[in-house]
Design brief:
By secondary structure, the chain is α+β, with helices and mostly antiparallel strands. The chain has 10 helices and 16 strands. A hairpin with a 2-residue loop joins strand 2 and strand 3. The chain is globular.
Length: 352
């Protein structure tokens, strides 16, 4: 993936926003990477990979724990399974693919409900329970993700990791995006905001079903760029555009309350105005975003031909930190920079 570096000073407010968040969340390291009009316009690395005195400085190949950002890769694998006919429809019942699940609990739950966090299921003492009827509310629960990864594995006979490597990582030469069973020198430490949080451990599973994915800022931005370009990189259709379009279009049930977040294949998608959206007010419709509990955020704005990534290695929200306001204003800051660029162009004389 060949992108030229074209630094533009009017994007500096994005860095200021990231630095402000960096100072609030108690992390040791961070980074920012922005692609606009097929150029890298902002790339900065901040701090160290851990709080240790001799810790490695955050740099180009530093890989951050991305937490729930991994769900965009799971969504991709589901879209791949649908496109290739392994899953017939996202409106199929989950019980069609996982017949051993409790019928009373899972009744009427479809793959669409899992993808859009509208399944109404939760887990208590290891048992799946129903919180509310399917499609009537929105909650962010791991139980839906677990079901999706199992459906992909059973239907395709491949893991999430297998699919993503075969379709994206290997063709594009990605070497800084993966699920890890062991730590290495390029992986950041996860800094916990609350003393009650347990120490972070990588999982022994590298199938893509666990929260042990680490990615560099630049490769997360390139992942977003692949979506921005609908799978076409340097004139080559690396991934069928239908997979990308499916994953990033709004798939939430039409009857869902419009004040609730809207989703594609696990991506947050910008449609009509929503009080609970995690995408900034200034960000235009058609944009989509994914974020994780470590503060990592990937925002794609097709209307502006832009991808913006911010990375941190904190875990959770410290007292006084409003993550929803912070992530919304991140997107709004990006849009403000674009407005400044447009104003600057208008101020240049026609014959300059």
């Amino acid at each position: 993936m060949f992108l030229k570096f074209n630094r533009k000073e009017h994007f500096s407010p994005i860095l200021d926003h990231v630095l402000n968040t960096f100072n609030q969340v108690g992390c040791s390291g961070g980074s920012i990477f922005v692609i606009h009009n097929d150029s890298i316009v902002l790339e900065e690395y901040i701090g160290k990979q851990s709080n240790n005195v001799d810790a490695r400085v955050v740099q180009e190949d530093t890989q951050f724990h991305v937490a729930s950002v991994r769900k965009s890769y799971i969504g991709f694998a589901v879209a791949y399974a649908v496109f290739n006919g392994y899953i017939q429809s996202i409106d199929d019942l989950v019980l069609k693919y996982l017949p051993e699940r409790d019928e009373k609990v899972w009744k009427n739950t479809t793959i669409r409900h899992l993808l859009t966090h509208t399944h109404g299921l939760s887990q208590k003492d290891g048992t799946v329970i129903r919180e509310y009827p399917v499609g009537e509310n929105w909650t962010y629960r791991q139980v839906g993700i677990n079901a999706l990864t199992e459906i992909v594995k059973r239907t395709t006979k491949k893991t999430i990791s297998d699919i993503v490597h075969e379709q994206v990582f290997t063709p594009l030469g990605f070497t800084e995006s993966d699920w890890y069973a062991k730590k290495n020198e390029k992986l950041v430490d996860v800094i916990f905001c609350n003393s009650g949080d347990s120490n972070w451990n990588t999982s022994k599973s590298t199938e893509g079903d666990k929260m042990n994915m680490y990615i560099s800022a630049r490769e997360l931005a390139f992942w977003g760029y692949l979506h921005l370009k609908e799978g076409n990189i340097n004139g080559k259709q690396v991934v069928p555009k239908e997979i990308i379009q499916m994953a990033t279009s709004i798939q939430s049930p039409p009857s869902l309350d419009k004040n609730l977040p809207q989703n594609g294949f696990l991506w947050f998608a910008k449609g009509s105005s929503s009080k609970r959206t995690e995408i900034g007010e200034k960000v235009p419709k058609g944009s989509y975003q994914i974020l994780g509990y470590t503060g990592v955020t990937l925002l794609v704005i097709p209307q502006e031909n832009l991808v913006a990534v911010r990375m941190f290695n904190s875990f959770g929200s410290p007292d006084g930190y409003d993550y929803l306001h912070d992530v919304r204003t991140f997107g709004d800051t990006v849009m403000s920079c674009l407005e400044r660029e447009s104003d600057n162009k208008k101020s240049i004389p026609p014959n300059y």
